[in-house]
Amino acid sequence: MGSSGGGAEKLGIGEIRDLINLEMPQLKEALDPSKASTQLGWACPSCTFINKPTRPGCEICSMDRPEGYTVPGGHQPDPAELRRITQEKEAVRQYQQEKKEKRRAEGGWPTEKPTTI
């Protein structure tokens, strides 16, 4: 009566590990402790997506970056990250310019008085 019936066989932990390595290599990589320490970025507290270090909010769900997170020193943004940062800076510049022009048009912005000689 060494069989547990139903054709099910019991596998040892080593055999299970071997099956995981053969059938799900991406799981093996994700569970590799040496890879975890090199993870760059921050995990969203809401959806757990790993965001690029410089992102102010989650790329997937827009949740704010955790307050305690700091961009690692010496971090070099990849080209996609640099493009996003550049676009964000340009958007802020355009917003500020529009705001300035709107105030000026409404008369709420001080104008420079011409100097007379």
Automatic annotation (TrEMBL):
Keywords, ordered alphabetically: Metal-binding, Ubl conjugation pathway, Zinc, Zinc-finger
GO MF term list: ubiquitin binding; ubiquitin-protein transferase activity; zinc ion binding
GO biological-process terms attached to the record: positive regulation of canonical NF-kappaB signal transduction; proteasome-mediated ubiquitin-dependent protein catabolic process; protein linear polyubiquitination
InterPro entries (UniProt xref): LUBAC_E3_Ligases, Znf_RanBP2, Znf_RanBP2_sf
Signal peptide feature range: none
Naturally occurring in which organism (per UniProt): Anguilla anguilla
Name this polypeptide is given: RanBP2-type domain-containing protein
Region Disordered, annotated ranges: 90-117
Keyword Zinc-finger among UniProt keywords: yes
Pathways involved: Protein modification; protein ubiquitination
Bias type Basic and acidic residues, positions: 90-106
GO cellular component terms, semicolon-separated: LUBAC complex
PANTHER family per the UniProt record, alphabetical: RANBP-TYPE AND C3HC4-TYPE ZINC FINGER-CONTAINING PROTEIN 1, UBIQUITIN CONJUGATING ENZYME 7 INTERACTING PROTEIN-RELATED
RanBP2-type domain span: 35-67
